[in-house]
Amino acid sequence: MNHNMKRKILLVTGSSGYVGRHLSTKAAEIFDLYATYNSRAEEIKAGQPLSLNLTNRVDVLHLVRELKPEAIIHTAAINPGAGSEQEMMDINAQGSRYIAEAAVANKARLIHLSSDMIFDGKQAPYHDDAPPSPLNAYGRSKAAAEAAVSEVDPRAAIVRTSLIYGFAEMDRGTAGFVERLNTGDRFALFSDVIRQPVWINSLVEALLKLIEIDFGGTLNVAGSQAITREEFVRRMLAWWHIDTQGLLESGRAADISDTIPLDLRLSIHKAEQLLQMTFPGVEEMLEISKKKYTQ
Asked: How do strand 227-228 and strand 194-195 relate by DSSP bridges?
């Protein structure tokens, strides 16, 4: 009888990141949680913190063999603009391969977090099994990660998601724009880039549900509302009461770069059915949270 009471062991990589922090907090309520980080141990919010260098295959295999997790949710990655193409390939692609090898060797259920940035933005809306067509270094590294994970562990669930935001803590993208505003520079928000931002709580719920669902392959998990990058940023800055000081202009990504995918709408019907969930859009979440966070 006691055996059933024992909590499953879950390993979450990248627990010091935005997704990792939210995921760990929720996961620790249900699982015996181990939370890995690369450099920012102080950002770990829940679980047993463990340092892990994803570029070291021996370390990755050793850690997973020691912990014997029933499941691994792999969120660790170098984000766009945070490293060179080589670093992205080493951590995002090679590191994901090592995690997949460790998962298979220890019969752990693997959930791998991917991105809509693997697409070129010319064939939207993208279905769950659409082949990658990346335009930039980050997209290439995440596409390579998907290929490695599916090759090593065909039973792994690969979750393709979009911009991620929440209302308890400012998301990374919005925080980046606030930093730019603080420098006093004028800059443009893209009116021609379309994404489907996902509420962090929805994404976390989906990732945790996938542990118990026998699904292998790629799955789109994003918000139901397609919105321009400009509109999304303006909405988020307004939500956080950030004074934009008249510094924000409207601009077109297509005019300045050919490495920015423009239309990254994703079809999410499969995830809705498989996970028995709905994925509210930005407007809907703003309405709900206004009521929740306004006295």
From this structure: antiparallel
Per-residue pLDDT reduced to its tens digit, 178-237: 999 999 989 999 999 999 999 999 999 999 999 999 999 999 999 999 999 999 999 999
pLDDT in tens, 112-126: 999 999 999 999 999
Q: Which CATH class is domain 2-169+198-223+265-281?
A: alpha beta
Q: Where are the domains of the chain?
A: 2-169+198-223+265-281
Q: How far apart are CA 138 and CA 130, in angstroms?
A: 18
- pTM for the model stands at 0.95
